[in-house]
Amino acid sequence: MLFIAACVSENSPFPFLNNAFSRSNYVVQKLYEFGTPAMKRDLKGTLDGNMLRLSLQMYGCRVVQKALESLPYDDLCELLEEFRGNTLTCIQDQNGNHVIQKLVEVMSIHAKNAELHSGEAGLAVRMADRIQFVVDDVLVNVRTLCCHPYGCRVLQRMLEHCVEFQKMATLDKIQGCHRVSSFCCGCLILQTRPNTIVSFAVS
Fold first, then answer.
1. What is the spatial distance between Cα 19 and Cα 101, in angstroms, rounded to a whole number?
2. What pTM did the predictor assign?
3. Do residues 22 and 59 lie in contact, with contact meaning Cβ atoms separated by under 8 Å?
């Protein structure tokens, strides 16, 4: 616990992450991956109120992504609320877009797996509602984001991972865009797997 305490100060969470030459972020990532539940709880506490700030940093965004992969679902539900109202800020940022991509992927997988394992119909839809604010922000700006070098990546993750109703809403919105440029179509088709989904969406 001494290491974790040393990593955190009152005014600068994970101060070493601001150092362009630091590799300490890899240590924190490994703690999320292999640490004990107690360690992860302590690390999660340092993220509270700092998710947006760290997501916009070169090294901080890597720690946030690993936290999204490693922390329990209930913890993720608390942390992701810090992105509410800041979705586009992250998507349009060279570091933050990776966090939103990971958020969409991880939360969607949690939702699908929970319904699969429990057999409770509709559970995935209810759980997926946790990221509906992200989906809504993307869909309102879909025409711009599908041509944006980072925004198109988030759209790809939504098409790949979101639960069915969110995926269909995304497809409908892309289809409904008028005068979609060949650049947008090419960007999405070349980078998305399976590309037939996006080919259909922009046809």
1. 24
2. 0.82
3. yes
